Amino acid sequence: MNRKDKISLKQLIKNIVFCLITFCLFLAILEIGARVIKTIRNDLWLQERQDWFVYSPILGWERRPNFKGIAALEYREFDSQGYIIRKGRSFSENRPKILLLGDSCTYGLQVEIDSTYGAFLEDKLGSVDVVNLAVPGYTSYQGLQVLQRAISLNPSLIVVSFNFNDRRYVLNKKDMDSPSRFQFIWRWSWVNYLNTYSYVYKMLVTNRIGKIDLRTTPVRVPIQEYTSNLEKMVEIAQTHKIPLIFLVLEDNPNITSYIRKGLELKEKGLLPEAIKVFKEVFTLYQRVTDLPRLLLAQSYEELGEREKANQIGRINPLIQLHGGTTLRTDTEYAQAMLNFTGRSYTYVYDARPILEEDPSVFFDVVHFNEDGHKRIAQGLYEFIIIHNLLPSNKI
Length: 395
Known about the structure:
Layout: H1 3-50, E1 53-56, E2 60-63, E3 68-70, E4 75-77, E5 97-102, H2 104-107, H3 117-125, E6 129-132, H4 140-150, E7 157-161, H5 179-187, H6 189-197, H7 199-209, E8 212-213, H8 223-240, E9 244-248, H9 253-267, H10 271-285, H11 291-302, H12 306-313, E10 314-315, H13 330-338, E11 346-350, H14 352-356, H15 370-386
Parallel strand pairs: 5-6, 5-7, 7-9, 9-11
Antiparallel strand pairs: 1-2, 3-4, 8-10
């Protein structure tokens, strides 16, 4: 083989390799493109399923009027004012009304509208309209704003239940529930869309923020503000002479039992034993709550193991509209509600015992199934009757 033939063969091999590389790159680009298109389609589908809410300068977000479709993982219909519609039921000026204020537990996440405790309660009372004003992600701060609006409906009874979302962590104090925070959410709503649908944006924001320390991270509504919000609700009820029930719920007992056990050991000074318990619950439930991680970091710090405390306590934050996971115990916030027992026009119904009878009614860290809703409805019904909280001629 002469020199010219060798050069030709070498060039041929180069061309073949180049073509193979080009073909592989082409396939890779096709694959990436297909994945991007599929992701966009999925995100658009998700956006359609999330169009049940609109941004609000007062509430951050609220139910979209005249909506029909999947709203927070279950089918819902809202009327022109954003009120939930139950087929076969309509509001009447001649019937007394019960207002339900709450979050996704009261709303009925992953539960059909007729299987929520509000619907069960309405069916049991018969001649009473139960107006479910709950919205997924809401805190006591948002509930107070809703009550200030809805008091014009002239209800005969108000039922309030908030706890979980108040305890979610936020990046800094500016992100805590406040008028300025919700004005920002409303004015810069496109930022929330980017945070929901753009992976690049999430990556850039996460890298810019870096890690946060759970030991110094605030929650959406600290316990002092939570108590103040409840106090203002009581004042509204007293001013209008309307009975108000604080409904005390709880997180899944299968999780909280570990946390309570660890806290008891920690309070007794048995830090190694407490750390063992917190490690166990942290391993099992680290995707649903960062409270065990926080308690673990605090225990290591008390034990003098600062390096381990810093390693455990610092995380890459979860950035979403409702805030991160919970950083406070449900017991602390439940006690704040219980402290209102005996106040004028104020009642407290503690539903935790009926939920703890069968923890299987919980399908995640805080939400309960149809059976759990039935139990709460029955308990509320009996509580209302025993305390004669509705006009007797209307029941």
